[in-house]
Amino acid sequence: MPILKRLNMLLLTGVLLVGAAAAGTSTGTAAEIKQEPESKDTIKLAMNEWTGQHITTKIAGEVLKKMGYNVEYVTAGYIPQVQGIMDGDITATLEVWEHTIEGNYDKAVDSKKAVGLGDTGITTKEGWIYPSYVKEQCPELPDWKALKNPDCAKLFATADTYPKARLIDYPTDWAPDNVERIKALGLDIVAKPSGSEGSSVAELKSAITRKKPVLIMFYSPHWIFAKYDIDWVELPKSEPACYDDPKWGPNPDATHDCGWPQGWVRKLGWAGTEKKWPRAYRFLEAYKIDNKLQEDLLLKIDFEGEDLDKAVAEWMDANPDVWKAWVAKADAS
Predict the structure, then answer these.
(1) What is the pLDDT of residue 263?
(2) How many CB atoms sit inside 10 A of residue 2's CB?
(3) Residue 297 burial (CB count, 10 A)
(4) In the chain, which segments carry CATH 3.40.190.10?
(5) What Rg, from alpha-carbon coordinates, does the chain have?
(6) Strands laid side by side in the 125-131 sheet
(7) Which is nearest to 333 in space by CA: 17, 2, 9, 3?
(8) What's the rounded Cα separation, in Å, for the pair 198 and 204?
(9) pLDDT at 102
(10) Measured between alpha carbons, how far is 153 from 82 in angstroms, rounded to an integer?
(11) pLDDT along the chain (333 residues), means of 10
(12) Is 151 exposed, middle or buried (0-12, 13-18, 19+ CB in 10 A)?
């Protein structure tokens, strides 16, 4: 680290500690966080279609407000928002997933009208889940080859699939590909599409209440991982060759003999943000959350029914050290 930058960070730390002594905290006072904004124009943050993204966005937006900026939350379609950012109608979107953005992210950045703001901090995962207590009956789990054992497969069977295991698959309109994967891995599993995500969660809750085995296609982050003790089936690691080269993987005669690719989750901003709101831009770069933070709030909102704004406000009141550290990092840049 350059000496000048180290000195700046030391000076900043000293200022924060002085404020902490006055406020009784370890990260500074509201007066140090709030500054006159470089522009009074409104920073517009995209709100997409799922609760996790709302949490990611609301936390960032509320911190920006405390920093002195005017912030507006704009409802935006997931793919259309990219053009809105390139046009400057939206300032930033804070949770875009690699495997659902369909190349639009790269096109936006390549156009020079949008800029990458770094990783959001969330790690995504898709695959087959089961309640952890099932390992008592099938000790070979989480290895996927455990499902080749008829005794283990039968644990997940239902009347209409016996003796084969039942997999509660994604809803049909999510375009699941488990039928091909199950066949490629040589497993005695029948994939049954769920009617909805809610139906899958209801099946999980019912099984856990009765302490019965259940196998479900699911994804994280999600509140179920904050509420229940859940494990993932460990499928062969995904590689691009798995989907187009039959010789790759455990089955030399088939593709899809692997798990799902796990991609990045990033932030994307309008190219003019750094010039117009440099401090806000640095904050958006520094801003990162993790799965636990999001899943804990998802549990409050989607399971316990708490209002989004209330849940975010309570989290910020309880965790000033966390969000003030993002601001400090931005100011030290």
Answers:
(1) 87
(2) 7
(3) 26
(4) 2-122+264-332
(5) 23
(6) 189-193, 165-169, 216-220, 125-131, 230-232
(7) 9
(8) 10
(9) 74
(10) 44
(11) 34 35 40 89 95 96 98 95 97 92 91 98 95 97 97 97 97 89 97 94 97 96 96 96 94 96 94 98 97 96 96 97 96 89
(12) exposed
Q: What fold does the segment set 125-244 form as a domain? A: D-Maltodextrin-Binding Protein; domain 2 (3.40.190)
State the pLDDT at residue 6: 31
CATH 3.40.190.100 positions along the chain are 125-244
Q: 189-193 and 125-131: which strand pairing? A: unpaired
Rounded CA-CA distance 300/104 in Å is 32
Domain topology for 2-122+264-332: D-Maltodextrin-Binding Protein; domain 2 (3.40.190)
Q: Identify the pLDDT of residue 262.
A: 86
106 beta partners? none
Q: Are 206 and 275 in contact (CB under 8 A)?
A: no
Class of residue 12 by CB neighbours under 10 A (exposed 0-12, middle 13-18, buried 19+): middle
